[in-house]
Amino acid sequence: MADQDAQSPVGIEPPALPSIRWDEPPEGPVVVLLDQTRLPAEEVGLVCADVPALVRAIQTLAVRGAPLLGIAGAYGVALAAVRGHDVEEAAGLLERARPTAVNLGYGVRRAAAAYWMALDKGADPQRAAAVALAEAKALHREDAEASRRMARYGLALLDELLPGGGHQLLTHCNSGALVSGGEGTAFAVALRAHRAGRLRRLWVDETRPLLQGARLTAYEAARNGMAYSLLTDNAAGSLFAAGEVDAVLIGADRIAADGSVANKVGSYPLAVLAKYHHVPFIVVAPTTTVDLETADGASIIVEQRPGREVTELTSPQAGPGGEDAGGLLVAPLGAQAYNPAFDITPPELITAIVTEEGAVSPVTGVGLAELCARSSQI
Ligand code: MRU
Questions:
Q1: 47: helix, coil or strand?
Q2: Do the Cβ atoms of 185 and 255 come closer than 8 Å?
Q3: Does the C-beta of 218 come closer than 6 Å to ligand 1?
Q4: Is residue 253 annotated as a catalytic residue, yes or no?
Q5: Protein residue closest via CA to atom 6 of ligand 1
Q6: pLDDT per residue over 196-240, tens digit each?
Q7: C-alpha closest to that of 342 among 288, 289, 378
Q8: What is the atom index within ligand 1 of the atom nearest the CA of 172?
Q9: pTM of this prediction?
C-alpha cells in the first residue's frame, strides 16, 4: 500500500456550519442548509424561504442523506405552516422530492400529523404551526441522540467481530454529520473508533458519479483528524484482495421488512466482495430508516437520476443550490447512460444492521421488527 500514509490528518474541526438549521430573521422564518454541492471548496449556507426552494435543494443534493432528508422534510412542513402556506400541498411536494430515502416521507408526515392534530384539537393555525415546528426540532434532537447510540453499538460490534485492534474500515458515499442531526450513521461508528484509538485507516470510496465520498466523507474525515485514503470505486476489489479491509460500514436509505438495504449505488458490489473475502459488511441506520411496509428489496423504488451526471463531469460548485452550469463531457455527445442513485443489498450479504436500539445479526425480518417495536415504545 505504497502511499497510504501520504495524507496526514489535519486539525480537528467540525463543519463550520450545521447541516441544517431553523432561523427567524426579520424577513421571516427560513431553513438554512449547508450547501453540500459547494463542498469541500466552500462552506456556504443556502437559505430556503419556501418549500419550492427546499424541494430544489433536495433534488440537487444541496441537502441529502436519509436522516437529514427526514429533518429537512419536517422543517419544510413547519416552514409552510409558519408562513401560512398550504400545508397539504407543501407536504406532498416535499414527500415526492426524492423517492428512495424513507426518512423524507417520515419527517414530512410526522410534522404534518402534529400540525393537523393541533388543528383538530382546536388550535388556531399559528399555534398549530408552532406545534409542527416543535415536532421538527424534536426529530432533529432525536436523530442526534440516535447517532450517538448507533456509534456506541457499532463500535462494540466491531470490537467483537475484530478483536485486537486497529481497524481498517471501508465506507461508501457519505454518512457523517452532513446527513444527520448528530455525527451520522456509519461514519459516526468510524469516528468513534478513531477517538478510541482503534481506527487504523478509513478507506473512502469516491462514490461516482456525484462524488459524495471524495467531496464529503473525505472532508469530514480530514476535519476530524482521521487517517483516511480515498480510492476510486473500481479499486475496492484489489484492496479486498490485498487483505486491507477489515470491515465495510455503510448507511442506508431504506431498509425493507426482510432486511434488504437500499443505499448509494455501489454498495451492493461491496457486499458481494465482502462475502467473497469473508469480511463483515455492516449497515448502520436509525430505525426511522426501516420501512416495515415495504416487504422486500424488489419493492423499493430506486431513484433514477439524469444520465448527464454520468456523461459529464459536472462541477459541484456549479452555482448556488447546485444549478448546473454544464459540465465537461466525458462521453460522446448524446451517449445514453444508466444512472440509478441506489442499489439493493439482500440480507444474506449483510453481517449486521446496527440501529440506535442495538444490532440485528443475522439479519432477519423478525429481528428488525423487534428493534422497531422497541424504538416505538420510547
Ligand atoms: O443520493 P444521496 O447522497 O442522498 O445518498 C445518500 C446515501 O446513499 C447515504 O449512504 C445514505 O443516505 C445513508 S447516510 C445515513
A1: strand
A2: no
A3: no
A4: yes
A5: 65
A6: 999 999 999 999 999 999 999 999 999 999 999 999 999 999 999
A7: 289
A8: 10
A9: 0.94
CB of 65 shorter than 6 A to ligand 1: yes
**What does the angle CA 66 – CA 71 – CA 75 come to, to the nearest 5 degrees?**
145
Q: What 3-state DSSP class applies to 54? A: helix
User: How far, in Å, from the CA of 172 to the mean position of ligand 1?
Assistant: 9
237-267 pLDDT, tens digit per residue, is: 999 999 999 999 999 999 999 999 999 999 9
Sign of CA dihedral 49, 18, 98, 314: positive
Q: Which three cell numbers stand for residue 276?
A: 467473497
Environment class of 151 (CB within 10 Å of its CB; exposed 0-12, middle 13-18, buried 19+) = buried
> Does the Cβ of 253 fall within 6 Å of ligand 1?
yes
Rounded to an integer, the average pLDDT of 157-177 is 94
How would you classify the pairing of strands 312-313 and 328-329? antiparallel
Ligand 1 centroid to 254 CA: how many Å? 10
Report the candidate in 232, 161, 178, 179 with the shortest Cα–Cα distance to residue 203.
232
Distance, in Å, from the CA atom of 1 to the CA atom of 84, rounded to the nearest integer, reads 58
Q: Does the C-beta of 185 come closer than 6 Å to ligand 1?
A: yes
All three cell numbers of 117: 392534530
Q: E strands of 176-234, at which residues?
A: 199-205, 228-231
Cell numbers representing residue 116 in the block: 393537523
Give me the catalytic one of 35, 143, 253, 343: 253
Question: Buried (b) or exposed (e) across 17-48, using 16+ Cβ within 10 A?
Answer: eebbebeeeeeebbbbbbbbbbbbeeebebbb
For the Cβ of 110 lying below 6 angstroms from any atom of ligand 1, the answer is: no
User: Residue 85 has which C-alpha cell?
Assistant: 402556506
Q: Atom 9 (ligand 1): residue with closest C-alpha?
A: 65
- Euclidean distance between CA atoms 220 and 207, whole angstroms: 15
Task: Round to the nearest angstrom and report the end-to-end CA distance of the chain.
Answer: 47
Handedness of CA 85, 86, 88, 93 (dihedral sign): negative
Enclosing H/E stretch for 308: helix 308-311
Closest alpha carbon to 65 in 174, 150, 146, 140: 174
List, for residues 317-363, the tens digit of each pLDDT value: 444 444 455 689 999 999 999 999 999 999 999 999 999 999 999 99
